[in-house]
Amino acid sequence: PSYTSAADIEKPFANSWDISKGLVNNNVYDIAEDQLGRIWLATPGGVSIVDGLGVTNLKSDPGQSGSISSNVITKVVRHKDSMLVLGLHGIDIVSPFSLKATPVDDPQNLLVRAINILFINEDTAYIVAQNKLIRWSVSLNRVEEVKAVTHSFSVNAVYRFDDNEVLLSTPEGYYLFNHNSSHISVFQIAGFERKDEDVRANSIDSSNNRLWISVFGKGLYIVADNALFKQFSVNNSGLPSNLISKVFQRGQHVYVVTRKGIVVFDVDSLEHIRTIQPTTHHDSYMKSDMALTADFRSNGDLLVGTTDGFFVINHNQNHPYIKLSETHEGINKLGVVESFTADEKLLIRTSNNILSVKDDGDFINIPKETNHLSLNPIAQHHGLLLYEDNKVAVVSHEESKILEVRGLPEGVKLTEVIRDNEDGRFFLFDDTHLYISKRVEDTLVVQLSRNIGNVLVADAKVYNDVLYLATQRAGLLSIPYYSVNNSNVELERIAGPEVPINLFIDSKRKFWVLTLEDGYYYHDDGDVNIQPKPFKQELTDFDPVCIAEDGNGFLWFVTNTGVSVFSPSLELVGRFYNEIEVSERFKVNNCGRVKENIFISIPGEIFIFNAWDEITKIPTLNLGYSDISVNGNSVSGTEQRQYIEPSILSFELYSSSLNFESDYQLLYRVIEQSPSQRDESEDKWLQSNSREINLIKPNIGDFVIEAQILLSDGTRSQIAKYSFSIEPPYYRSSPMLLLYVLLALGVLSLLFFYKLKLKNSELQVAKVESEKQQEYAKLLTQEVDEKTQLYKEQQQLAVQANIDKTRFLASASHDIRAPLNAIRWKLHELLDSTHPSTQQLMEEISILDQLVQSIVNLSKFDAKIIKANFEVFDLNELINELKTRFNQALDTNKVEISIKPHEPQTHVFTDKFLLLRLINNIVDNAIKSLHGGGHIEIIIQQINDQRILVSIEDDGPGIDESLQTKVFDSFIRGTQKYAGTGLGLTIVKQISEVLELDLKLESSTDSGTKFWFELQSAEEQEGVDKPNLDKEAGLTALVIDDDPFYANDARVKVEELGFITTMIDDMSNIDDAFSAGYDLILCDYNLGIKINGIDLLVDKLVREKLLCNQIIIMSEDSSVKAKAKEKEGFQFLRKPIKRSKLSWLYQQNS
Hints:
The protein is an alpha+beta fold. The protein is built from 13 helices and 79 strands.
């Protein structure tokens, strides 16, 4: 056969669409092409619109305006600039741009179930709906029943007969209806009874005055001169089926759409020309139940709708070829194992034979020398077959020979054989070695060998005296050919190709490397850099699986989606996609050169292409804008060019080209038309993930949007351009802005004039006012000075009052407690200590003393005298110290106390003294409530990295619920069973507020009382920075005061001066609390005991030889100063003490 195109062969390849590719339904009832070149498909599930960018579906949606009326669509028709959609609920007029539907006005529902429409002119159409003939006047938007017809018979279909009449197909027969006069006449057919036949389709051949009639199950009837002229069926005309869905005429041919193919007849001679049965992916066309419709596209493509999708047979082919299945129907039954070339002949190896393809496409058998060819080879490579016994079969176009291999080491088991056609070398491989051999008559003689390791060689070539090995485990290896036998020369790995599988040298001496996953690499002859370059690295999706060079030097790259042809200078000059049988099922067995041409072998088919010429034949890829919408609203077509500052401007793209692969890239860019405003980044193409390009709040200016399709091999569509302007709203337009400026200038000028006029009068008034203001300013200045002086005096009084209050509290404590202590000691001397009333009297005096102390302490809190001194310390150590203090009370009251620390050391950040007083008061209350026995538990828990939970629980009688809200109030006591002041928990509450603790209480008469609060955690610190006053480290100090709060305040101030301080606030252990010596002793005069502070220290200095560098006596009573001066080495400091005075006094006497 001659080289031809797919449009002229019986089994062309058809590209297909079904629900897996986006169709709304696989049953395609009708096909139409809109003015943009898109294909509209009528299906029982809606309308599918197919173009090169994919599928757009139109479905009925009552909740969305502009949707079609029904999903069951019977027909689609183009009329002028609109598409008509006929369906179950009437006819919709759909804009091909916005795809918005408008139903035809049909108040009487005459268009329900419309199945057929015929326009007799641009304004009038006849429609068949509900077996009635309906007239539709488009310009008047009027639908009316043709009663002369519908009152006479039911109508199945209407066809154009001539300029004045239409042919009506009815169950009773055929009638001619004159649409000018409304006259009806019978169309007689001799030898054909319409009422006895199930007519499915009709077609009128006006040039020969013939009527073609399809009858269900019987085939075709042809009527000429009102008589049955011929009948075609599967028995006499080559029809593949008697089931025919459509008959139509185009040019000199009549196309009959049968169940399993489209039969083409000559319109004049009625000669059967051919039957078109396209090949498709997965053979889906032939597997479909029925072909339902067909039509031609404006460019000549044949469109077919079936029960299994939609098919397109491209009419115009880029390049002629031979398809061997057209020559040999059974080629797919031969069991082709391999196809290759030898001496520029195409050879086909089957399981039993070797066939040579002649120039006319016929086959001849090549003689076989032995039965080896009937065995399964363990390896094969372009006509070389390697068998288990290490024998190699060499197949040529004339014969096949079995060659013995000589020179192999004993026990070698060959695994691969490769031929280098340039020099006649044979490369033999076992698991780890390479053997290079030459053919000598009927043997292969090994000449060189070397160990290459277990690298799994896929191909080998000698290029520029270098042996290259394509290996799957080590990449591309190379070694100088004449160093193969030299074990001292290592194989070198070439960077780039990771898994090379094929090597090829073209006529320009380019060395090509095909890889498994990352395409081709090539090396130019003469390039000093040995590393190959990636071929078309910018084409990330271009993934060839085979390469061949035709007789004109053009390179054919075959991929799993098509064929791309490149010139010798590596420019793309041609491509095939969806034109021959390639795509996702395209599995390439081999490709190569046959004389000047190219063969490509795939399962079940072999193509032989003509060699390429100098003409570039890249298919034209169309791209345009189908619709433009502003803020979601479609504008009229694509004509509007100016838009008023939209929030979103959308561009809908389409392509009438149906030969895109699925992984195409849609690129776009927006360019500013003003050169001064243009940004270089605008030239960069951006990729869009959908056919709709959205510009969000575009800038003001003139722009051009450009869009382009990029295919995997670099094929680009024409650039779709659209110029548009973004204008500001009218109120922000240039004329309005100029008007705003002029108005503003006018208003400012008017204001300036009136302001200037008023200025003179204001100056006169201002002069008078200025004089008054100067006088007023003098009076005001004098009053401010007086007020300022008064404020200073009041501030000094407030400061002094605060000092006096502080001293009063200290004095009150002394003045009240001193007589009580005197009474206590005097009674102790006078009364008999063994008498019961003596003990009771002493306890009452102690309670009174505690009450006074508690009242004074509360006063300190109220006066904000007590401040927190936050520091880091070990909480566990403080709790253990507190337990030691209560040892005697615990034993006396038979109370046990347990401590559950979280860790051996738990460091917190708070005031140590105040926290100790808080816990001390809670524990003291608990011990008293447990008089007669009980248990107290102190639990320390780590809540998180920042917080420590402390809870104090006892199993005592608890606090009555009615008192729990008042327990922190002054003088409130939960029981009268033991003595107390009722101020202990009040002080606890005051301390918690100073420390900013959230103190919680939980108590019941059954389970006891629980107090808990949270402390701030702190990491352990080795020490705290303190001023050293030029003293050496290790200075010690002793603070003595029976008032714990004053004692703690003094301790803090002393420690701030850098002393290691001991504090004594419990006078009951005063005699045992002293150590050998101190650098500083700070002692209160009134200690609440029989002896005062001066006498106590004098006694310690004289009797116990206490050593001290400096002694300071504290008192709120200034008369004590004279008593302290009488003693050598004693200094006096009046309460409340200040750190600055303490520091100065210490330094003066150091």
